[in-house]
């Protein structure tokens, strides 16, 4: 169970351990501490603030009436708190991160150094264009690389993430359809059943109806299945390639041709572009729009509360509808076109207030420049090689839903091999934590029952892959031997034990409140 603060209350219900054997609850370097709200002092703070002068608030009835309720800590206490939190987290700098479909790629330190250079790190979105020519030149060069690598015509850099890029690409498609006067008729978007969940959500968000395309028995989409659904109301298809099962779509060119013949558009989810960079250009395959997750393909940090970037490349058919702002050559250097009226084409509008995340642009271009075309191609080849090495090392113990055949950058297993063991996919994933690994993606894609999607990325050495495979084999053999106790309550050695995830999702505790004081028993 969880108490009012959402914390474990006893060992059996998910506490740290039944008995650490220490007075503090610490286990050597694994430091235990109370919540920051429990340890902080509300009457003091580690920073001195001057009393504000008289002023007239402009918040009206929205002004705070009570204390803000933030705990005061000294600088050492604050530092220790966040360092200890970081030690409880798992990241790509900690060990192999096999999260499938999300591509936890190593963030090279060279890229980080470049992003911290003055002029890039300090650039402000409201600076005069004349003072940011270097930043605009970098954005222009990044655009050139993205267009060249994808075989497309133009790129919109401004989307802030993959899903935001999806929205941008689909809005460009919608604008193109409206420009042809077909906005009232072309209202349906085809989405394969193995797609990322953001695909149908994006299409629905901007007013399209979604029609599901079934996957074939081998996990791919067949052109005939698409043709059976194409009609005069078809606006586009949203297809991931390589797809979410880790497989290259063999009939993608035929699918694109069928869509184009019907007057529709081809949107490609570029989440897995890292598997084909330097090997295949989406534009050559018939793609009209594709977002690119810079964190997945070009090693910028993954998430982190806001530093995302999801540029969208557009074909010649959609390039005129790219949103503002965008960089273009001018008489006295590069200029930033910020308003639709100043554009020569027909931008569908603006998708974000400012242009984008400069730090991500710098990191991505640094990755491209340091690797070169041959290096990026090798990275794709190594990612595919590593995934197949893991697949081959586990195929005799773990079942593959679409047969024993080569995959792209990620290997997909299902849970049929766990039948009658008493161990579920979730149990297996939790036990991986005890072995020092972040679990792979589980229960996705939905087309594989109890899915386990493993992606090692290209940066892992053979020795790290061998250890991972050996650990997975040990767990698989333990499950098959019936050692269910090793899995049922795992993880045992993490800073926190397993929580009731269903209850946490349905009854989240979103605000910490002080516990009621405990009464002493009467004598």
From TrEMBL:
InterPro entries recorded: Aminotrans_V_dom, GDC-P_C, GDC_P, PyrdxlP-dep_Trfase, PyrdxlP-dep_Trfase_major, PyrdxlP-dep_Trfase_small
Domain Glycine dehydrogenase C-terminal residues, every copy: 379-484
Enzyme class: oxidoreductase
Documented EC number(s): 1.4.4.2
Region (Disordered): 1-21, 482-523
SUPFAM superfamilies xrefs: PLP-dependent transferases
Gene3D superfamilies: 6.20.440.10, Aspartate Aminotransferase, domain 1, Type I PLP-dependent aspartate aminotransferase-like (Major domain)
GO terms assigned for molecular function: glycine binding; glycine dehydrogenase (decarboxylating) activity; pyridoxal phosphate binding
Swiss-Prot/TrEMBL keywords: Oxidoreductase, Pyridoxal phosphate
Catalytic activity entry: N(6)-[(R)-lipoyl]-L-lysyl-[glycine-cleavage complex H protein] + glycine + H(+) = N(6)-[(R)-S(8)-aminomethyldihydrolipoyl]-L-lysyl-[glycine-cleavage complex H protein] + CO2
GO cellular component: cytosol; glycine cleavage complex
Taxonomic superkingdom: Bacteria
Keyword Nucleotidyltransferase: no
Aminotransferase class V domain: residues covered: 183-303
NCBIfam families: PRK04366.1
Function: The glycine cleavage system catalyzes the degradation of glycine. The P protein binds the alpha-amino group of glycine through its pyridoxal phosphate cofactor; CO(2) is released and the remaining methylamine moiety is then transferred to the lipoamide cofactor of the H protein.
UniProt-recorded name of the protein: glycine dehydrogenase (aminomethyl-transferring)
Organism: Saliniramus fredricksonii
Phylogenetic lineage: Bacteria, Pseudomonadati, Pseudomonadota, Alphaproteobacteria, Hyphomicrobiales
């Amino acid at each position: 169970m969880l108490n009012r603060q959402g914390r474990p209350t006893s060992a059996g219900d998910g506490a740290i351990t039944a008995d650490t054997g220490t007075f503090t609850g610490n286990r050597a370097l694994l430091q235990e501490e109370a919540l920051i709200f429990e340890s902080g002092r509300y009457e003091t703070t580690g920073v001195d603030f001057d009393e504000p002068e008289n002023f007239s608030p402009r918040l009206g009835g929205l002004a705070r009436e009570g204390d803000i309720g933030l705990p005061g800590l000294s600088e050492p206490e604050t530092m220790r708190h966040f360092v200890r939190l970081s030690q409880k987290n798992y990241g790509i700098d900690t060990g192999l991160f096999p999260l499938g479909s999300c591509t936890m790629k190593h963030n090279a330190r060279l890229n980080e150094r470049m992003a911290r250079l003055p002029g890039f790190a300090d650039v402000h979105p409201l600076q005069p264009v004349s003072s940011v020519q270097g930043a605009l030149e970098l954005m222009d060069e990044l655009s050139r690389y993205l267009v060249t690598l994808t075989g497309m015509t133009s790129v919109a850099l401004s989307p802030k993430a993959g899903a935001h890029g999806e929205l941008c690409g689909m809005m460009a498609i919608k604008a193109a359809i409206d420009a042809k006067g077909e906005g009232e008729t072309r209202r349906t978007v085809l989405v394969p059943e193995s797609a990322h969940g953001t695909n149908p959500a994006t299409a629905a968000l901007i007013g399209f109806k979604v029609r599901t395309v079934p996957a074939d028995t081998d996990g791919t989409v067949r052109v005939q299945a698409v043709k059976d659904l194409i009609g005069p109301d078809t606006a586009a298809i949203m297809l991931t390639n390589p797809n979410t099962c880790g497989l290259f779509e063999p009939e993608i060119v035929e699918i694109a041709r069928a869509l184009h013949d019907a007057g529709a558009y081809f949107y490609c989810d570029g989440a897995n572009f890292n598997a084909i960079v330097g090997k295949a250009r989406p534009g050559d395959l018939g793609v009209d729009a594709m977002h690119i997750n810079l964190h997945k393909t070009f090693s910028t940090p993954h998430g982190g509360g806001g530093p995302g970037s999801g540029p969208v490349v557009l074909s010649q058919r959609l390039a005129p509808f790219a949103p503002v702002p965008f960089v273009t050559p001018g008489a006295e250097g590069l200029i930033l076109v910020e308003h639709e009226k100043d554009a020569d084409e027909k931008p569908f509008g603006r998708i974000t207030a400012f242009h984008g995340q400069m730090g991500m642009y710098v990191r991505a271009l640094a990755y491209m420049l340091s690797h070169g075309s041959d290096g990026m191609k090798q990275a794709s080849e190594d990612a595919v090689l590593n995934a197949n090495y893991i697949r081959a090392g586990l195929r005799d113990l773990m079942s593959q839903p679409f047969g024993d055949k080569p995959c792209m950058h990620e290997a997909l297993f299902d849970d049929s091999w766990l039948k009658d063991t008493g161990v579920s996919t979730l149990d297996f994933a939790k036990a991986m934590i005890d072995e020092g690994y972040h679990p792979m993606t589980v229960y996705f894609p939905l087309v594989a029952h109890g899915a386990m999607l493993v992606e090692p990325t290209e940066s892992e050495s053979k020795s790290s892959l061998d250890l991972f495979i050996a650990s997975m084999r040990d767990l698989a053999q333990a499950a098959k031997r019936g050692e269910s106790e090793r899995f049922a309550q795992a993880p045992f050695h993490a800073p926190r034990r397993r929580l009731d995830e269903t209850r946490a999702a349905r009854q989240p505790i979103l605000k910490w409140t002080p516990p009621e004081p405990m009464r002493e028993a009467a004598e």
